[in-house]
Every structure is written in structure tokens, then in C-alpha cells.
Amino acid sequence: MSQIHIKQGHLIDPANHINRIADVYIAGGKVVSVTHEPAGFKATTVIDATHKVICPGFIDLSTRLREPGQSRKATFKSEAIAAASAGVTTMCLQPDTNPVIDTPAVAELIKELAEKAHYPQIYPIAALTRKLEGTELSSMLSLKQAGCIAVSNAQQAVKNLLILRRAMEYAASHDLLVMFRPNDYWLGNNGCAHEGAVATRYGLPSIPEEAETIALAQCLELVELTGCRMHFGQLSCKRSVIKIYQAKKYGLNISADVAIHQLHLTENDMIPFDSSYHVLPPFRTEEDREYLRQGLATGTLNSICSDHQPHDIDAKLGAFPETEPGVSSLETLLPLMLKLVEQGEISLQQGIAALSENPARVLHLNSGALTVGYAADVCVFDPELTWQVNAENWKSQGINTPFWGQQFKGRVTHTIQAGKIIYSLE
Amino acid sequence: MLDINDLLNTLEAELKRVIVERGLVDPLMIGIRTGGVWVAEQLHQRLGIRDELALLDISFYRDDFSQIGVNPNVKPSQLPQDIKGRDIILIDDVFYTGRTIRAALNEIFDYGRPSQVVLAVLIERDGKEIPLCPDCVGTSIKLNAGQRIKLTGPSPLSIHLQTLDAVA
Amino acid sequence: MTENIQLNSEGKLKHFLSIEGLNKTLLTEILDIADSFIGMNDQQIKKVPLLRGKTIVNLFFENSTRTRTTFELAAKRLSADVLSMSIATSSTSKGESLLDTIRNLEAMFVDMFVVRHAISGAAHFIAQHTSPHISVINAGDGQHAHPTQAMLDMFTIRQVKPDFSNLRVAIIGDILHSRVARSQIQALNILGAAEVRVIAPKTLLPSHVESLEVNVSHDLTSGLKDIDVIIMLRLQKERMTSALLPSESEYFKCFGLTEAKLKIAKPDAIVMHPGPINRGVEIDSKVADGPQSVILKQVSNGIAIRMAIMAMAMQKQGAVG
Q1: Do C312 and B66 touch (CB under 8 A)?
Q2: B19 φ/ψ sector (left φ>0, alpha ψ -120 to 50, else beta)
Q3: Could you report the per-residue pLDDT of A339-393, keeping only the tens digit for each?
Q4: Which residue of C has its CA nearest to A209?
Q5: Three-state DSSP state, B108
Q6: Which chains have 3 or more CB–CB distances shorter than 8 Å to chain A?
Q7: In the predicted model, is pLDDT for residue B81 greater than 80?
Q8: Considering only alpha carbons, which residue of chain B is nearest residue C27?
Q9: Which of A364, B56, B119, B137 would suit a FRET pair with A237, their CA atoms being 20 to 30 Å apart?
């Protein structure tokens, strides 16, 4: 088994409060030291991390790899390469695959696909309801035993609050985390853009922020009622952040994340009718972005996810409302996080914590940290290296990103998963 | 030196001769906007034409639409409803490349089939590009490079020879 | 907008997709050119050879006999060859993709698409993906824009009231779903109207409607004061079934234009309607057929305006060679 020595990098490990130049020693697939060379250590690989940052590998709370069922858009193989090149060492897979992750067989299939793609750390998220139809409970216990790390409704509606309550109670009884994207189907009214000045001007069917905040408020009440552990995914507006803050203060056992692109883009950035900007939840106002950033900075929103949704070209070719929503975002995760740091919104430690320590805590994983004895999931990146988002550099099968063609600063040079180097730049 | 009255006198005489020669009966006079109309107004009076002077705007029949686009200042042509079988005297101020007359003929023929068309112009100059030619002229001249004819009017009607600034 | 795809490299009109992005000079030029085509209505030969040999395809993904026929007539009066296609799109079956439909037609060497579609942004999409020599005219896309209608409305207004800077215009009805209203508001603002007022119940107004630079009123009686131009919008039956309005009769009571209500506006106010009219729902027959109504003028102006826009969009840039 390989023994890796990462030399003289700027080690940032928020979970262990480390922020200094250090060496990292990896053996037997685990972190063996971050202070001194262990006795008998013989490095088979040396990584020179001078002027680079060493941090825990990123844990992505929400990704879609499109298999099984939609391999036209992407495959485990292509997206695993993309994830590795993005410094992501653990991915949580949303259940809206085809077939839906509502049987242990599908969970097993996912494990197999992950092994075949040489990227074992893909955790399926089980569907909250059968076929994600929102009416009957899925076999959550069997799914948990088959390796599902949480349950979720993906982007689907739960038929009514009674069913949601029962699903939450059932999940709670098996100590399962419920990951929930709050959205009221009726208020959402099949919209494709934020209900605001931009949608009004372009006559786009729109989604008021209340579709999210009302669903969130209802869910928070149910959290109190059921004692369920809940994580709210991909929040998009100011009033959601405020509700999370108040709920946490009140003592509810909840957490929340925001998609990386929501921290940067608003309705005003949308190029008219450009489907690269078609996402759900939609890009909202500058005030919403302000609050999302503040929420991250103050810890109200503790995690950042990629909300990776690669698409085939046809899915984005059409009149805006007819295109499929979603951004291919794994590879812009790091540079966009660094941009927030550069803009002074958060510190580098906070950014790294939001991508590693905090998601690990949400998922109850012994990960997201370079603790001695933990599996060695490590990311080494060069914060000064500039690169362009183009066909030469992009690894994901989906090129649907509003950042196509842009120059970014910050690039992963090495990614190590469970002690194995799964990516190195050049 | 070009004298407007001399030109009009000559053109009037020529037209009178051709009217007899070609056997025109109760001709319809059509002036091409804008200069041709001014000239036609004079001739219409001098020749005592019975029908009101008809006006032709050829903007929509020009052959250079794809280069210069649509002219926003077009006034519609005013022709009588039926010109089938009529004898027509078509008047323009200057005959140069011939494209204006080609356009005018196309437009006239869209209105109906005239019996015959007599073309009378105040000045015929060199530079023809289309195989057409006036039946009556006030005068024929050859211009130097950079020279052009300018008609001003309608009252007083006068004609000048202009030299455009030399362009490299 | 980062780059205005409606204009070619010389700032001349290439596509006509929305009023937004065009300036007052260009809009005025359209009105002036339409003026010259109006005279043709009285001629025996209602045709000019401007677009002779050009092929124009009317691509109507949404049904509309009225708009389609005026575009057909306009194209024919410019001597173009016209192909009209009504493509029904069912919500359940996708059939040929939008892009494939366009590509197939392009392969037949067409010069212009006139597009009407139920989805906002469809005309933009087509303009961006079509061959560079083809021009696209938006005949109405979803709730976004209906710029040719707005221009014929401006033209009609100008015929009666030539100075926009003095005009107070009221647009009444279902603004929320109206692409016509959005285009009219933009045109009026660019042409410098003194005031644009929208009058509608709250359910029929888009959120953030003030960002369109209009004044808002929910009451017809007070809203019509000092108005010079009244534009009535059509109320569609679906509004009752989607819980936006209780009934047509209640709508007519509050927002229907009757002779009595008309008197509140200026005495020489004109009444307009993009059609088709729902008599007794948004407008009383007596008003629609009355002396202040210019509704029929709008219809006949429609051809001249569309001729102007099509002719302008087909101009190529500069001299060839």
C-alpha cells in the first residue's frame, strides 16, 4: 500500500483547528501524522505542496451523476473524474435517478457503479417516498442498511403535510437524516425564474420566494413535532436564512446548505433567455445573495454544496422555460468558494469547513477532517493558479454552466481518496 | 451654362414634334419624383395636357434595396386607376444611368398596359448603364469627373452644374 | 443586454424580437416607413417588388388566424413568397424539437422566419441559432413580447395624436399574461409618452410591475382621469378557472369600458384594443363601435407596419462587394 508524504503545504483543517505550514503523512489509507514523520515511514509518493493549500477532501451534500437511467447526460465514470479533479472525495447522490433509489437493489447498483468508476465514496440518498411520488413511504430501514446515508424528497413534492409528518417520524425512528429542499409545488406554479423585476420584464413564468419560505416554515414546525433530524438543501433567499437562524436559536436540530452558484449569481446576472441560467431554485435578488453570504459567514448556513446537475446539450437548447434546469458545478466549487474568500465574505477556513467539516457533521461521518486515524481524504490546491472554464479543462460530461469561458483562480493539484491518489494535475 | 428656360423651350418643341410623329392622343403625363415632377408641371401647362399631372415615386422599385434599404420618406404614387391603352409621356429631370427609368417603367406596367410611352428628359448626360434612351431631350451633355447636375425648385425652377469636392 | 442581437454590425435592424433594446430613432423610422406603405391601401396594385424572390416562413406554434393572415398579406404585398406553417404543440408529446424544425426549413433556403410561440424566449432562441443570413420577426412569444402589435398601436396613436410627449395612456386588463402590454409599455416609454398607467385587479398585475416604469391603479373610475389613449386588453376565459377572477360579469362591472366610464377620460380620448374583442366583458359594444374607437384602424394599420418591419429587417448591410 502506498505511503504518501505531502510536503510543506499550508494545512487548513478546521475540525482540528489547524492553520499552519505542515507536512501530512498518509499510510494504509489513513492519515498517520500531521506533525512529524512517523517512525518507519517510507514515502512511495512525495507531493510538493509549497505555496499550496492542504485541506480535507470536499464532501458534496447534493450531486446528480445521472446514472442509473440518464447516461445521455452523464455517467459515474465521467462525473467521478470531474469530482476528483475538483477535490471532491465524497458525494451524496440524490435519489431522483431512474429507477429512483427506493429499493435496496438500486442502492446496491449504485455501489457497483461507484466501484467500477474507481470512486467508492458515493453515498446514495434514499427516496423519502416510493418512486418519489410523495404518497407512500419508502423502505427507509432497508435502504439505510443497504448503505443510504439519508433520505430526501429530491425536487419532488410530498402530497400533503400529513404524509410529510409521517415520513419524518418514520425516518426519525430509524435515526435517518432527512434532507429536504423546501418548495411548495402550487405556489411554485411551474415557474422557471424568480418572481421579480427580471421575470416580469421577460414574461417568464415565475416562482415567488414564498414557495420556499412557506414550505420551510411548515417543515420547521414538523421538525419540532416529530423530533426528526433535518437538513435543508439549496436554500435561495433571505427569509429562508432568517427562518433557519431563528429555528436554530430556538433549539431545533437542523442544518442547511446553499448551492455554490447561488452565492454568486442573481437575477440581474441572467443573460436574457440564456438557459445556462435556468436553475431551481432560481437566482434571486442581490439582497437574497447578501443574506445567503452572511448566513454562511455567521454559520447559520453551515455547508456549501455543488448541486451538480450535468445536462446533455439538447436539454438546454430551447426557449428558456422549456429547457431543463440545473448547472454542472463540481469543477467550479473550489474557485467560486475562493472567490468568496477573495471578496472578503468568508475566511478561507470557513470556506473549507463549509465544504468538509460541516457536511461531515451533518452526515455523521468520521470524515471531513485530517484527524489521525481517519481515512485519508485530502485535497491539495494551488490558490493562485488561474485557468479557464473551457473544453480543454472541463471534465464533466455536462457543459451547462453559466461560467463557461470564464477565468478562475484556484485549482486542485492533487486529490487523495482513502489514501489513494485519484487525481493529479499534469 | 445651362439656362432653364432654354432647356424647357427645346424640350417643349421636341415633345410637340414627337406627339405628332408618334400620333399621341390625349396623352397622360407622368412626372417622376421629385425633379421630374417639377419639370413636368411646367410642361403640363405649356402643352395644355387635359388630364391632371400624375406623380410617380419609384422608391419601392429601385434595384438597390439591398444596399441602401428602405427610404423612410416615400409618398405614394398618384396615378389614375386605369392606364390600359393610354398614351403616356414620362418626364424626368436628368437621364443618367437609366435605372430610374427602368424602375419607373416597371411600376407603370404594374398599373396596366399602356399603348405607348414617350420619355422626355430635361438633360441627358453621359454614363448610361441600361439600354434605354429618351425620346426627347432639352439638351445632351458630357460631364467631367466629379461634376453633377442639380435641379432646384419648384419655384423658382433652376438648374446648376456642381463640382463635388475631389475624393481620392 | 450585453449584445443586442436585433441589430446588425451597422446598427440596422436585423431581427425584430422585442421593443426593448431599440431606440427612439429606430422606432420612429419604423413608423415613418409604415406611413409610406399606408398609401398603398388605396392603390389598385397593392404590391411593391421590394422583397421579390425572398421566401418568408410564418412559423406559428400557437394558433392565430388574425395575426397570421396580416403577416401573410404584408409579405405578399412586398412580393415575397410566403409559407405558412401551423405547428400544434401538445404538452404530452414533444415531436420534432424547435431547433430541428428550424434546421429543416433552413435547408430549403428561406430568408425570414415570423415566429409565434406559446413560450417566452422562443423567438430569441430561434434568432440565436438560425443561419446568419436569416431574419427573425417575433409575432408573439409566451408572455414576453408582441412587438409588431405594439408598433401598430403606436402607429395608430400617432395618426390621431402625433405628439407622444403629451400623452397619458392607460392600459387596462390582464397585464400579467399580456405580451402585448409589455411591448406597448416599452414602446410608449421609449417614444416619450408623458405617462403610462396600468389599470387592473391585483391578480392580473405582474409582481414588480412598477419596475416597468408605469403607474398603477386598481380602480377604473379614478384611473381614467386625464387619459388620452385607452388600450383595452382581452380577458381570456382561463383566468376564471385559475382563481384569478371570480366571473366575467364582475370583471365587466369593475373594469369594463362602458360609455359612462369613457366620459371620465379626456373628451377626445381614443379607444384601442388589440383584438379579438370580448364584447360585454372588457368593452361595451357601443364603445367598441363608437366614434372614439380606432379598433378597425389598428387592423388596417397592421399590414403596413408589418410590411415596414419586414422590409427593414431584410436590408443587408452596406453595399455588396
Answers
A1: no
A2: alpha
A3: 999 999 999 999 999 999 999 999 999 999 999 999 999 999 999 999 999 999 9
A4: C207
A5: helix
A6: C
A7: no
A8: B72
A9: A364
Per residue in A37-67, pLDDT (tens digit) is 999 999 999 999 999 999 999 999 999 999 9
Catalytic residue, chosen from A307, A312, A377, A382, is: A307
Nearest chain B residue to C318 by CA distance is B67
Neighbours of chain B (3+ CB pairs under 8 A): C
Q: What tens digit of pLDDT does each residue of A243-280 get?
A: 999 999 999 999 999 999 999 999 999 998 999 999 99
What domains appear along chain B, each with residue ranges and CATH number? 4-167 (3.40.50.2020)
At the fourth CATH level, the homologous superfamily of domain A3-53+375-384+405-424 is Urease, subunit C, domain 1 (2.30.40.10)
**What average pLDDT score do residues A71-85 get?**
95
pLDDT under 70: residue ranges of chain C? 1-3, 89-95, 316-321
Q: Is C88 on the interface with B (CB under 8 A)?
A: no
DSSP, res C21: T
Cβ contact, residue pair A318, C145, below 8 Å: no
Within A278-332, residue ranges assigned H as helices are 286-298
Q: Shortest CA distance to B161 belongs to which of B150, B122, B4?
A: B150
Interface test with B, best of C8, C12, C50 (most B CBs within 10 A): C50
A-side interface with C, Cβ within 8 Å? 195-197, 199-206, 208, 271-273, 314, 317-322
Which amino acid would we find at residue C79?
S
Which domains are assigned to chain C? 3-145+302-314 (3.40.50.1370), 147-299 (3.40.50.1370)
Task: Name the residue ranges covered by the structural domains of chain A.
Answer: 3-53+375-384+405-424, 56-363
C121-152 tens-digit pLDDT:
999 999 999 999 999 999 999 999 999 999 99
CB pairs under 8 A between B and C: 49
- Is the separation of the CB atoms in A390 and A264 below 8 Å? no
Is chain A touching chain B, with at least 3 CB–CB pairs below 8 Å? no
Q: Taking CB atoms and an 8 Å limit, are B61 and C36 in contact across chains? A: no
Q: Tell me which residue of C176, C295, C288 sits closest to C238, measured CA to CA.
A: C176
| Contact assignment for B72 to C316 by CB distance below 8 Å | no
ipTM of this complex: 0.87
Chain B neighbours among C 289-308 (CB < 8 Å)? 308
B111 touches chain C (CB under 8 A): yes
Per the annotation, the verdict on C218 as an active-site residue is: no
Q: Which of A110, B69, A154, A49 is nearest to C12 (CA)?
A: B69
Q: B77 in contact with C at a CB cutoff of 8 Å?
A: yes
Taking an 8 Å cut-off on Cβ atoms, the answer to whether B70 and C311 are in contact is: yes
Neighbours of C256 (CB within 10 A): 24
Taking the C-alpha atoms of residue A81 and residue A78, their distance in angstroms, rounded to an integer, is 5
What pTM, to 2 d.p., does this model score? 0.89
What secondary structure letter does DSSP report for A31?
E
The catalytically annotated residue of C116, C144, C182, C239 is C116
Give CA C196 to chain center in angstroms: 17
* Cβ atoms of residues A228 and A203 within 8 Å: no
A331-358: b or e for each residue (b if 16 or more CB lie within 10 Å)? bbbbbbbbbbbeeebbebbbbbbbbbbb
Cell of B148: 453633377
DSSP C242-307: TTS-S-HHHHHHHH-B-HHHHTTS-TT-EEE--S---BTTTB-HHHHTSTTB-HHHHHHHHHHHHH
Q: CATH code for A56-363?
A: 3.20.20.140
Let me know: does A56 contact A370? Beta carbons within 8 Å.
yes
Burial class (CB in 10 A: 0-12, 13-18, 19+), C95: exposed
Q: How far is CA B142 from the centre of its chain?
A: 18
β-strand pairing of C81-86 with A18-27? unpaired
